[in-house]
Amino acid sequence: MRILIIQIRQLGDVLLSSNVVRVIKKYLPESRVDFLTSKNAASIVSANPFIDNLLLIEDGLINEIKTIFKVRKNRYDAVIDIQRTGRSGRITFFSGSPKRISSNKRHNNFYYNVTIDSFDSYYTLDNRIAYLKGIGVEVGKGNLPEMYVSIESENSAKNFMEKNQLSDGKYFIVAPTSRRPERSWSGYNFGVLTNMIVEKSGLVPVLLYAPNEKEVILDLKQRLKDVNFVDTEGKLSFQEIAVLIKRGEFFIGNDSFLAHLSVSQQQKTFILVGPNSGWFPEIDFVHEISAGLPCQPCNRWTKCSYDRIDGRIRCFSELNVEMAYNSIIRYI
Q1: Quick one: 151-329 is in which CATH superfamily?
Q2: What's the farthest any 2 CA atoms get from each other in the chain?
Q3: CA quadruple 158, 162, 164, 167: dihedral sign
Q4: For 170-221, what is each residue's pLDDT tens digit?
Q5: Span between the terminal Cα atoms of the chain, in Å
């Protein structure tokens, strides 16, 4: 059976969707499974041993048309569109596949002939794996993401650690940024929290962020003037970051791709959460920290009726440092 998985954008979604391939291979070991994503996300899945062929798409209508022809040429028995956007829907529809699978959305299933009801109460990875019902595979809950790393990336990460005098278990990761700043804790709070943890534990903080996020963390770095920290400067690859996270003591960050990456390495993970829920597994090494407001979780952050403070909605502005520190320190 020839199967194509489509998840073009959103780094965290690409990581979570890639684990669908492993499940398919477990239950349909003779199948061929390809994965379609963007060039920006390629390194997230490039070392995945369960993906037979990685298809990459660039922006623009011409590239979309080229991808459709490439997909049609491969004659897939099933195409599973996890992303479910206009672009991914068109690629699925014109694939020529006899099974065009995605989630069921009332009055909006034109591109698909097999739709699966989603389960909002499920961890989002389990929800994606539920799409496999369309090819006759049914799996229970409790699945975890996995990020695979090449030998080259592992060695490169180890060299970075040696250069910065980082030893296994003697540092922790701080990832203070988010794709949506209004859905994140402030850099100031991350800085104060980091200082408190360093004073208590003696561990070295390592700052993780993307190259275009340098300005975002200036407020955090200003709080660390008397703290010895390592700044990755946004220069590490996703696979190198995975190694760095795994060899540290724990991870602290927003609800973001890097938090999912930490979970994929089965690292102790602390996530500052606001309006959303269901994105992380309920497992002993994953800890969500929230302000505990009666309206949480609402999963409707764009329609929050409360006043913003510094652009942040109430469930982040009212999550104070002491609250976060007390939640973290009892586990470390």
Answers
A1: Glycogen Phosphorylase B; (3.40.50.2000)
A2: 62
A3: positive
A4: 999 999 988 776 678 988 999 999 999 999 999 999 999 988 888 778 889 8
A5: 47
Lookup result for tokens 């990832």: 175
* Radius of gyration of the chain measured on its C-alpha atoms: 21
Write out pLDDT tens, residues 198-211.
999 999 999 999 88
Q: Do domains 2-135 and 151-329 have the same CATH topology?
A: yes
Structural domain boundaries in the chain: 2-135, 151-329
245: amino acid identity, one letter: I
Q: Tell the CATH topology of 2-135.
A: Rossmann fold (3.40.50)
